[in-house]
Amino acid sequence: MKTNEVCRKLKITSKSLRVYEEYGIVVPKREANNYRDYDENDLFMLRTVILLKELGFSLKDIKNLIDNNNYGNNQFTRSLYLQLKAVERKMYELDVVKNTLKTSIDNILESNTKQNYDTLVEKIDISLKENKTNRRRWLDMWGFDNKAIRFDKMVRDRSNDELGLFDKYDEILDEVRKRIIEHKSVKVVDIGCGTGNLCGELSEKMDVIGVDQSLEMLLQARKKYNKMKFKLGNFLDKPFIKNDVDIVVSTYAFHSLNNKEKKEAIKNMLEYLNDDGKIIIADFMFLNNTEREKCKNDLYRKDKLDLWNVIDNKYYTDLEEFQKYISSINCKIHMEHTVNFTWIVEIQK
Question: If 288 and its partner were Cys, which of 71, 79, 174, 320 is the partner (CB 3.0–4.6 Å)?
């Protein structure tokens, strides 16, 4: 497609196309007469650039984002995912500013004394600066840690797992699969499915839907298990099926949620289930806070602060507190310790 056709189709100027080319973002092929010839991939990339510019990203940042997203197959899907994440980032930033403005207005309305407007304006400036800092971190992290490609090797490699987080990984997955089969399950939802290690082989005989917030994990899983279905999402998304699932399962993912999020996740998981349905969670947990503190003190005593930070940076479930919550919503819970920090928990209505 010629330059003037692209400009007309996308409603952009030829000057913009030249700038994108100078930055190395979209560089079309040249015909024998040296005229630029834009193909379908170029057009889609230009649409991505236009959206990212509308969201406030600089051309330098757009170039970095696209370069770090440009590997392997599924380029169309990856580009859509990049746009989705950029929109989510912008929505988060706008929410921060919105909440700051609303709080400032409420403070003015609720106060009987004269307000220090410089202080209120300063709070708004701070929220804008924090947004800029957080966006920079997001940009720096994007695409650099493709955990999905090395995930299967990582969970089975004991050399860098001093805490033993993935000890008996395959045995635990076998046990969870056994419980799914014994339940005579027909329909299963696996949240935080990763590369499909748990339920992939079950998809030969069951209707299995894997949910994960990482596109790369889902792409790896789809490559391995072509009968398994997939959705981009997480624990906090509202159920896409209600009252029609035999098992909702999750392995090695629940510890990413804080206590408030865990409660919301359980409510969502229960909504998936039919009357005889069950939740199975295999994850890192402590029996109670006493056990947590004991672990912390032991690691401190051994001068293993780095290992404690690995634990402390996540939200290992306090099982005694969790049990109280499950009872408060009139559900049954069964807990079983397997190895090190890993427990298997079953929850039924």
Answer: 320
CATH of 3-54, one of 1.10.10.10, 3.30.450.190, 1.10.1660.10, 1.10.357.10: 1.10.1660.10
Q: Which of 205, 210, 234, 213 is nearest to 223 (CA)?
A: 210
- Tell me the C-alpha distance between 246 and 330, whole Å: 19
Domain extent listing, the chain: 3-54, 81-145, 150-348
Helix/strand/coil for 52? helix
Rounded to 5 degrees, what are φ and ψ at 283?
Answer: -165, 175
Which helix (H) or strand (E) is 254 found in, with range? none
Cβ pair 195, 217 in contact under 8 A: yes
Q: Which residues of the chain have pLDDT under 70?
A: 71-72, 141-149
Supply the pLDDT for residue 72. Answer: 62
- Tell me the three state secondary structure of residue 119: helix
Give the CATH number of domain 150-348.
3.40.50.150
